[in-house]
Amino acid sequence: MTYTFDPLVPRPIDRPTEVPLGPLTEEQLIALDEAKIFAGPPDPADRPAWRERLREWREDARRRHGYTGAAYERPGAAWAARCRTVAQVWLWDELLYDVERGRFTPEKFLADARERFAGLDAVVLWHAYPVIGLDDRNQWDFYRDVPGLTELVRQFHDAGLGVFVDYNPWDVGTRRAGDDLGELASLVADLGADGVFLDTLKKAEPEFVEALERAKPGIVLEGESKLPVERIEDHASSWAQFFADSPVPGVLRAHWYERRHMQHHVRRWHRDHTEELQSAWLNGVGVMVWEVVFGVWVGWSRRDAATVRRMVTVQRAAEDLLLHGEWTPLAELAPGAEEAGVYGSRWDLGDQTLWTVVNRSDQDYTGPVAPGTPLLGEGVPARGIAAFLRAASEPAWVRELPDLPHDPDARFPHRLAVPRTPARSSGTPDPDAVVVPAGPYVLTVRYRARETGMYQGAPYVDEWKPLPPRLHDARTLQRDGVLANPVAVAATEVTNAEFTEFLERTGYRPAQPHRFLAWNTDPDAPVTYVDLDDARAYCAWRGGRLPTEDEWQLAGETGRLRRGEPAVWNWTESEHSDGRTRFVMLKGGCDYRAEGSDWYVEGGRRDPDYSVKLLLPGLGLARSATVGFRCAWDLPEVTA
């Protein structure tokens, strides 16, 4: 396949914008509004003029757009200007949710963040994608149907964190309730959320902002990409996502425009976060810590985690300097520093001067840097950061700084998704079950490329922004294995009537009853609103187990598996976990299909070779109107 772009190279719209060094024309001033990052000039002699042009642009842009800064005076929004580390976390991340105990574990999640990242200032509680579209539940259902969610938000608040909820404007094909604006405003008020993450959006429309402000005065809105200059007025935060810096570090346009506007650098698929961290350090902004991207492990190296830890500890201690001090980007450093790849920003407030410094080279720098006391140790480590402070008297916050060593280990911390091994069954199969013979097999599996990936590893590594045809396109993979013994796979799915008999005979009741058998009426239809454990319990009662995804496909390719009405996806014994995400492979497809967005789980009936990777929610939310199951039985080996 030939692509029209190189996914490993920033697109033109991601690249920094050159700043003319002469007096700016009206056309040039307006053009600079479109920058993500103002490129730093390579020649130090050009930098005074460059800084003057930046100040000229800021003054002109504020005048043109009638900037008042009133949104940043709201008491409820003041926290956003100091919100430097935000974690995007799926509600069912195994650090946040304990599968065995069936409860949220924010204490475990926060302890990990404190140890590796010096803590967090906020979380985005991600909820629906990439599961939404499996059935007709809408994005609001994936929040409102979660037992204990309000308590989870309270626990984060008690720990001093802000809480963002997520808004998916593309959710137009699931069940309709109220209008999006009313639903979101109600959710914000009911949960006590502090902010809204605007998924796929750069900004919210003014009427949207006004309604949310009425629901929660001081609400913080954060879009996913470059925020238009005129909307810095009413959006206190924004992602600096897909922002490529210049070789000589540049200046973030939105933060230069309004120092209280907090940006969070994020490159979700990158394994080396040096450039975004160094840009955040030089600009006095924050980062998005995102280690599980829609079920895919993209964990941060020890080096990058240590850089976050060092960076935010100083940023929090010196926040007045960073917010209110005179900022000099690309400040002059000691002779020889820049030649070694060392650059810095200078922040002056009263009798205090802080230098935030980065080393872009692969060699430690031990020479002179700035005329101040080092706050993060002597020198500037390779690909690392440093800080220097000059003050008439040492501030109290300096004495309170902990030891913050650099860690040079930049290796990617791989995780493997480990499959659950089913116990061998010994029961008698249905008379019409499809027998899959023992021995080796090779399968072709068809699937749609999604951000979830499939079995192991990330679907995109070091890519800037995966775009079609690399996103949502049709793919294949090969699976092979060996069946140690023949396996019989039920020709039909378990029906409501059969599952009811199981309940009556065994008294089975799930440990987590939420959504169990909700709205099942037709006795002959496939049983739905059952999760993996419910299905496993039934199969065990029948002396069997769930078929693996490979067994299901091998049986299905004989053409002898039958579908109930309505057609539903089938659970398979394919549960995997990498310690952060649980997932399973669904087979068979279903009659339901959510229309209107490629972000939905695909619906429709599917051939046996088609698979969908489904991330597993907890607390009963995995029970769906469109997922049922069939049983399988291990058969004795055939001997001559």
From TrEMBL:
The lineage of its organism: Bacteria, Bacillati, Actinomycetota, Actinomycetes, Pseudonocardiales. It comes from Amycolatopsis deserti. Residues 482-575 form the Sulfatase-modifying factor enzyme-like domain. This is Sulfatase-modifying factor enzyme-like domain-containing protein. Pfam families: FGE-sulfatase. It comes from the Bacteria. SUPFAM superfamilies: C-type lectin-like.
